[in-house]
Design goal:
It is a single chain. The chain has 4 helices and 7 strands; from the N terminus they run αββαββββαβα. By secondary structure, it is α+β, with helices and mostly antiparallel strands. It has a 7-stranded antiparallel sheet. The longest helix is centred in the N-terminal third of the chain and has 14 residues.
């Protein structure tokens, strides 16, 4: 009987839509950096819906390109020296503090950005691990073009959205 209940439970879970297990929606993105007079706070739903923290490797979607990273490109070398490095914090409605924090650098000469997932020795590693353990932390990745397109003008103007 116990085995039958276990099998039924597993079948129910596998048939349930992934949204049933989804985590909170992104409610705010905060961008901080050395050349910004104050943090940029993004709360515009039109922008936020494009950058779901819960997409990408080791999530229910396992998308090749999700969150703000082009996962399909794999890890890359550190961006060129001299580019400003921004801390980008993602807040969701199911947590009090940030759900995920990454570092972002944008290269205007190539019009492409880079995203760093903090590794074990980095400040935000354990916050991120409490949300998603992707298994590829401590690496730089190329940013999605849609993230570059949204972030670049905000950073250049230093404006909130």
């Amino acid at each position: 009987m116990r085995k039958a209940l276990t099998i039924a439970f597993v079948m129910l879970l596998s048939a349930a839509p992934s949204r049933l297990f989804a985590k909170g929606q992104t409610t705010k993105i905060v961008i901080e950096g050395p050349d910004l007079s104050k943090p940029i706070v993004v709360t515009d739903r039109k922008i936020l819906t494009n950058f779901d923290v819960w997409t990408g490797p080791r999530t229910s979607t396992n998308e090749p390109d999700g969150f703000i990273i082009r996962w399909s490109q794999g890890a890359t070398a550190e961006p060129p020296k001299g580019l400003p490095r921004y801390q980008v914090s993602f807040y969701t409605d199911d947590r009090k503090g940030p759900s995920h924090v990454v570092y972002y650098s944008y290269d205007p000469s190539t019009k492409s950005g880079y995203v760093y997932l903090p590794g074990r020795a980095d400040k935000w590693y354990w916050v991120n691990m409490g949300s998603i353990a992707r298994g590829i932390e401590g690496n730089w990745f190329y940013a999605r073009a849609s993230w570059d397109s949204a972030a670049e003008p905000l950073i250049l103007r230093g404006e909130n959205q």
